[in-house]
Fold this sequence. Notes:
Blueprint: E1 4-8, H1 13-24, E2 28-33, H2 41-50, E3 55-58, H3 64-73, E4 76-81, H4 88-93, H5 95-115, E5 120-126, E6 137-138, H6 149-167, E7 172-178, E8 180-182, H7 201-209, E9 216-219, E10 231-232, E11 234-236, H8 237-251, E12 256-262, E13 268-269, H9 270-281, E14 287-290, E15 301-302, H10 305-311, H11 319-332
Parallel strand pairs: 1-2, 1-4, 2-3, 4-5, 5-7, 6-15, 7-12, 8-11, 9-14
Antiparallel strand pairs: 10-13
Helix pairs in contact: 1-2, 1-8, 3-5, 5-6, 7-9, 7-11, 9-11
Amino acid sequence: MKPKILVTGGTGYIGSHMVVSLIEAGYEPIIFDNFSNSKRSVIGRIEQITGHKPKLIEGDIRNEKELSRVFEKYQISSVINFAGRKAVGESEVDPLLYFSYNVEGTIVLLRVMKKFGVKEFIFSSSATVYGDPGYDEFDEETPLSPINNYGQSKWMVEEILRKLYKAEPDWSIAILRYFNPVGAHPSGLIGEDPSGIPANLMPFISQVAVGRREKLRVFGNDYDTRDGTGARDYIHVLDLVDGHLAVLKAMNHKPQLLTLNLGTGNNTTVLELVHAFEKASGKTIPYEICARRPGDKNACWTNPNKAKKVIGWQAKRDINDMCIDTWRWQQKNPNGYPD
Ligand code: NAD
Ligand code: UFG
């Protein structure tokens, strides 16, 4: 029998790619999502890619009854928790919403897991938990100092997981700190579909390329980087989900608390990404230099050594692959998923 993996947030950007990879790797993903930031048509796209329609339960991770029904119906082996909210700006405007979705939601989920004796858990954390330690290459020992409510909600869940593991060391827990996930499935059938104006660089660039936005605003060109614009460790979403598969294999229900950064170890500036996207798409990306965005760091990237050593994983795809796949998705779906 195929191991059943509960994927909360499984119709979202990273979750949908995870579901495809799980199916291809011989697992049975069970999606649990409240569609607060995703569209139902994602399911048909996953079926088109894999030839398999994943099971889907609509519900909110904060609702203990809805979640319990899933564990009653299916013998879940492990849980990957992508459900949550991720917009830094919104987290500053509505902190209660963020702590409710991200912290309360995860507590309810862990409580239900415990009730049903399911103790393998993978959590989507973020490089944002590091804040700005005064240097640019972060390893897993870099001190944690998140500077916004979104980052703090991730840090709080991490703390809860560390305390849970200390009190109940039979859990198998992975805290994965993602750097900047971009790109899309090479079929062009699933990808990132932000609602409203994209807050992140890659989706903004691709919407300019496809003609949905007039020009990119580059937030600052006076940073201490190769060309003065901010530099990040962009990671292809397929490499990211491969990292999760490697984590699942390495964990294998052995009691542990594993904390890993998932990034490439490289960094790309805003203007380098603009030029790479122009090359991949054949389009010109008009841009203007604007003031720095408050709270932005000059640069950050991961030291990828721990992931390589502990789970034998490293990212394979480069910036060109990330741009080509993003562009294919954007071109095929200029307005994102159909409703
Ligand atoms: P996303 O918004 O595309 O996906 C999240 C999914 O969870 C959506 O389908 C949404 O409908 C669902 N959801 C949200 N709240 C829910 C709830 N209470 N109950 C059930 N379903 C709920 O986001 P993503 O980019 O796929 O990110 C997935 C996870 O990875 C998030 O936890 C995010 O914070 C984390 N992360 C993302 C990034 C990034 O840049 N994309 C970086 C670091 C960490
Ligand atoms: N940028 C622009 N113009 C834009 C958008 C972004 O110049 O329109 C610049 C930013 O100033 C930064 C770089 O592009 O230098 C990347 O910005 P993103 O918003 O794409 O990514 P961030 O690294 O700022 O933040 C993202 C997520 C966070 C997450 C963090 C680390 O938004 O939620 O990655 O994982 F925590």
